[in-house]
Amino acid sequence: MAQPEQPRSILQVTGADRMGFLQNLVTNDVCAPGLHYAALLTPQGKYLADFFVLQRPDDLLIDVASEICPSISMRLNMYRLRADVQITEVNIELCCGLGTVPPDGFADPRNPNLGWRAYGRQEAGVIDWPALRVAHIIPETGIELTPDRFILEMDFERLNGVDFKKGCYVGQEIVARMKHKTELRKGLRQVKMSGSAPIGTAIFANEKPAGVLYTQHGRLALAYLRFDRIAPEMIAGSAIITI
């Protein structure tokens, strides 16, 4: 068992209107019991935050990266208006693990290889999160997931983070248009690298900007790439990048 890759905070959502309130804001259907992965977007359809939502009998828990928790709490309260909804940061411990899901745990909805999450317990341990994320192409808050990105470019459909049948939410029109009327021209890919370069290093192909290098583990890395500029061999700083 281990802690998550980044510090996490837990927001508790209570009140009679809590289900409809959150359902009308986020990218996924959070009405079903269990743990769900979802995002909050700008009206222009760009990423603001990603988080897990756990439905419990009397409340909802939002499991979010601590670095964006204050801004997301503020944003949710801005949308609250007259709804019977209260949003409070609470001190609930989070534990993560690999292997068999314990009775009080929930399988990670993004990918079964990412193990499980349990709320209300704390256990020490180590999980090589960068290795897991690179192996399974999983973006992370504040690294690959930044405010200038569209969630379909970040593989949210594959990660079970968006529901195209749930109805309206903030930014839904843009997401639906990208899904049904356009072909993605950029996206997250696993690449091989020879050499080293810091996270955020620009990738060039044939001397033209082709993307950005992100999380690395061994000779593999995640990169955000322009598909029309992918070349057999690309450069990121002093590193050579190949697909």
Cα(first) to Cα(last) distance is 33 Å
Helix percentage? 10-25%
Structural class: alpha+beta
> What's the total number of strands?
14
State mean pLDDT (0 to 100 scale). Answer: 94
Radius of gyration: 19 Å
> What sequence of helices (H) and strands (E) makes up the elements?
EHEEEHEEEEHHEEEEEE
Strand order of the largest sheet: 9-12-11-10-13-14
Number of helices: 4
* Main sheet specs: 6 strands, antiparallel, barrel
Unreliable segments of 5+ consecutive residues: none
The fraction of residues assigned to DSSP E strands is: 25-35%
Shape type: globular
Question: How would you describe what is shown here?
Answer:
By secondary structure, the protein is α+β, with helices and mostly antiparallel strands. Helix content is about 15%, strand content about 35%. The chain has four helices and 14 strands. It has helices at about 20-25, 70-80, 130-135, 170-180; strands at about 10-15, 35-40, 45-55, 60-65, 85-90, 95, 105, 115-120, 185-195, 200-205, 210-215, 220-225, 235, 240. The strands form three sheets. It has a six-stranded antiparallel barrel. A five-stranded antiparallel beta sheet has the order 2-3-4-1-5, covered by helices on one side. A three-stranded antiparallel beta sheet has the order 6-8-7, with no helix packed on it. Strand 3 and strand 4 form a beta hairpin. The longest helix is centred in the first third of the chain and has 12 residues, at about 70-80. The model has no long low-confidence stretch (mean pLDDT about 95).
